[in-house]
Amino acid sequence: MPTSRFSPKTALERLMLPLDVPTVAEAEALVKQTEGAVGVYKIGMELQFAGGLEFARELAESGHKIFLDVKLHDIDNTITKAVRNVAKMGMTFMTVHAYPKTMRAALKGLMEEGNPDLCILGVTVLTSMDEADLVAAGYTGPIADVVEVRARDAKRAGMGGIVCAPTEAENMRKILGDELVIVTPGIRPAGIAAGDQRRVMTPADAITAGSDYLVIGRPISKAEDPKAAANAVVAEIAAAL
After folding, report:
1. In the chain, at which residue ranges do the beta strands (DSSP E only) sit?
2. Which sequence spans correspond to the domains of the chain?
3. Does the annotation list 212 as a binding residue?
């Protein structure tokens, strides 16, 4: 089975650090603190609405791999046009919600822009959700079934990868093979509180389960020495490979 062109080649490349801070100045400081110890910087909604989009472009231009976590979900035409613009920004990854029409509209925008280097990820079920949350949102569940349906459709659509909880990575690897990358938030080193995450796993366990990229935020960004914390995670990833 073919390996995805988006697959990481080193342990360092597998670590994604969210720049979940309220200002660009704080994001710049976190990048300086962790430069050389992180494979990908993730820019989410908090920073996007505080000048983060231009900052993302600047980081990409300086040689950093950037994950623009926009989680798009809208009418087809809007998604297609939005992805066309993201494809011009030099990003390495971006997200859309893993709904059938949304994923296909996103891929249409990517093809129209002619940028094969942007990996579009389908977000299956947010890792902050548990079974009760899914039922409250109107799904009959269980979560594992919803994730599987969305992952299979992402594969059929030709997506670059999916985002799922690490607890689902092993089953997703069986379904997706090596054709799509698996990105997993909800990673917590041993002894670190889960916070607002519900379906969590340690870095080593997530890699063993089949995750390609690990999104790890507060255990690194809130550490006394963020670079040392990032290096420790990369070492744990390397040992698990």
Report:
1. 15-18, 40-43, 65-72, 93-97, 119-123, 161-163, 181-184, 213-215
2. 12-240
3. no
Q: What is the pLDDT of residue 186?
A: 84
What letter represents residue 32's amino acid?
A: K
Mind listing the pLDDT tens digit for each residue in 137-164? 998 879 999 999 999 999 999 999 999 9
71 is in an annotated binding site: yes
CA–CA gap between residue 48 and residue 222 (Å, rounded): 20
pTM tops 0.90, yes or no? yes
pLDDT, tens only, 172-194: 999 999 999 999 998 987 655 54
How far, in Å, are 14, 180, 182, 229 from residue 148 at the CA level?
A: 23, 14, 13, 33
Catalytic residues: 69, 71, 74
- 95 forms bridges with which residues in the sheet? 121
CATH code for 12-240?
A: 3.20.20.70
Dihedral pair phi/psi, residue 54, rounded to 5°: -65, -35
